[in-house]
């Protein structure tokens, strides 16, 4: 829809998969949720199972466009579209989600880390349909946050940070952090994740870890802002997102 809206594509044939009811289900498995591809962002925001077991997806959905966009836009469409600035792809990557696709050769399950291969490019073959996204249910001790920055309400995401952290007592035991619009695909902030695990739950430790983004990210200048500004913004938003997750 985004490409049509911008007149970037003029298809001669358009197939609406929105009416395939099997692709609109949220299925609860013992340790996972399988969210059908045509589940809208509005549904992610309000579905009780998504809110309980994958709250990061609900949080991110709230940041997508406006209510009209959220009523039409789908999780599968956003993931298949693979816009580096897309918010849901970063959350799916932070969640270690799996992308379920079907085609003439049967079903394939692709880890999100292998699914996004470039700007607007994925591991989907032309004859395959994305049917759902499987994400692990959030366990005990995990908290989440999504921090998004745009230059004005109408502008696309300048940078987004999806965070899941787990703490036991005063110590971080796990951290998953993925950035939107900080490269040609959503990217994991691996250096920050490694630095957080085992660190004390203090603002100082979080700032120290977030500062490691310097060496790991390759923010490129866009929307009229410099690379240095984006690198600074990435560190600030990451620190802010982890701190906010702690008070979730
Ligand atoms: C005004 C506006 C503002 C927006 N703001 C934001 C924002 O702030 N953040 C954000 O993340 N997104 C934003 N979006 C994107 C939007 O939320 C949708 O997620 C995105 O446009 C995909 O829409 P869709 O689900 O209708 O998929 P479509 O537009 O129908 O499809 C997108 C692409 O994926 C392919 N595709 C779709 N479904 C499947 C499938 N099941 N299997 C295989 N291929 C498939 C299509 O062929 C197409 O190439 C915005 C869009 C608009 C129009």
Automatic annotation (TrEMBL):
<protein>
    <submittedName>
        <fullName>Carbon monoxide dehydrogenase medium chain</fullName>
        <ecNumber>1.2.99.2</ecNumber>
    </submittedName>
</protein>
<keyword id="KW-0274">FAD</keyword>
<keyword id="KW-0560">Oxidoreductase</keyword>
<keyword id="KW-0285">Flavoprotein</keyword>
<dbReference type="InterPro" id="IPR036318">
    <property type="entry name" value="FAD-bd_PCMH-like_sf"/>
</dbReference>
<dbReference type="InterPro" id="IPR036683">
    <property type="entry name" value="CO_DH_flav_C_dom_sf"/>
</dbReference>
<feature type="domain" description="FAD-binding PCMH-type">
    <location>
        <begin position="1"/>
        <end position="140"/>
    </location>
</feature>
<dbReference type="InterPro" id="IPR016169">
    <property type="entry name" value="FAD-bd_PCMH_sub2"/>
</dbReference>
<dbReference type="Pfam" id="PF00941">
    <property type="entry name" value="FAD_binding_5"/>
</dbReference>
<dbReference type="InterPro" id="IPR051312">
    <property type="entry name" value="Diverse_Substr_Oxidored"/>
</dbReference>
<dbReference type="GO" id="GO:0071949">
    <property type="term" value="F:FAD binding"/>
</dbReference>
<dbReference type="InterPro" id="IPR005107">
    <property type="entry name" value="CO_DH_flav_C"/>
</dbReference>
<dbReference type="Pfam" id="PF03450">
    <property type="entry name" value="CO_deh_flav_C"/>
</dbReference>
<dbReference type="InterPro" id="IPR016166">
    <property type="entry name" value="FAD-bd_PCMH"/>
</dbReference>
<dbReference type="GO" id="GO:0016491">
    <property type="term" value="F:oxidoreductase activity"/>
</dbReference>
<dbReference type="InterPro" id="IPR002346">
    <property type="entry name" value="Mopterin_DH_FAD-bd"/>
</dbReference>
